[in-house]
Amino acid sequence: MFKYELSDLKTKAERLASAIVPPYVILLRGDLGSGKTTYAQFFLAQILINKDKTVISPTFTIINTYETTKGTVWHADLYRLKNEAELFELGLIEFAHVGITLIEWSSIIESYVADVPKTIIEL
Ligand SMILES: Nc1ncnc2c1ncn2[C@@H]1O[C@H](COP(=O)(O)OP(=O)(O)OP(=O)(O)O)[C@@H](O)[C@H]1O
Ligand SMILES: [Mg+2]
What we know:
The chain is an alpha/beta fold. The protein has helices spanning 6-19, 36-47, 84-90, 92-98; strands spanning 24-29, 63-68, 71-77, 100-104, 118-122. It has a single domain, classed as 3-Layer(aba) Sandwich (Rossmann fold), CATH 3.40.50.
């Protein structure tokens, strides 16, 4: 079962996208298939500069980058990271301090972005 109706998830994501000011971290929490990427798709659709750009899951790429009306947005899925060395190499900690980051499976990075404004989306 999903916690939100798709239309409610869309509204919630669009509202945050409209209001957000970087730097800002969005921690997307929830089980496998709970809607984390779907939230990111709704969020990005609201602010993408190129409306034709497809927002796909970062499951395999780890990080996808988008240019938006709020500056660069990085969408990450850290599920497959094995250790902190891989995290540091990714550059996501630095990105999180300057732009907007949407992060799925974020536990490995949370202590490194404690000083950045953030919200937790529980799905
Ligand atoms: N609130 C919702 N209501 C109905 N269907 C949904 C909802 N949220 C997501 N879905 C559907 O569930 C499937 C999985 O969603 P999604 O890929 O966003 O999950 P995820 O949390 O990112 O998964 P993963 O943990 O594998 O990254 C998709 O087909 C999506 O369309
Ligand atoms: Mg996902």
